[in-house]
Amino acid sequence: MSEVYGVRRGRLRDRCAATGSAAALISRPANVRYLAGGAPPGAVLLLGPRDDVLLCPRTPAAGDPADGRPDDGLRLVVLPTSAGDAAVAAAELARTDGVESLAVEEHHLTVTRHRALGSVAPRLRLADLGLAVEQQRIVKDEDEIACLRIAAEITDQALGELLESILVGRTERHLALELERRLVDHGADGPAFPTSVATGPNSGRAGHRPGDRRVEEGDFLSVCLGANYRGYRCEIGRTFVIGTSPADWQIELYELVFAAQRAGREALVPGTAYREVDHAARHILDSAGHTEELAPRTGHGVGLEIDEDPQLAPAAMGKLDACVPVTVEPGVHLPGRGGVRIDDTLVVRQEADGGPELLTITTKELLAL
Question: Is the CB of residue 24 less than 8 Å from the CB of residue 55?
Answer without folding.
Answer: no
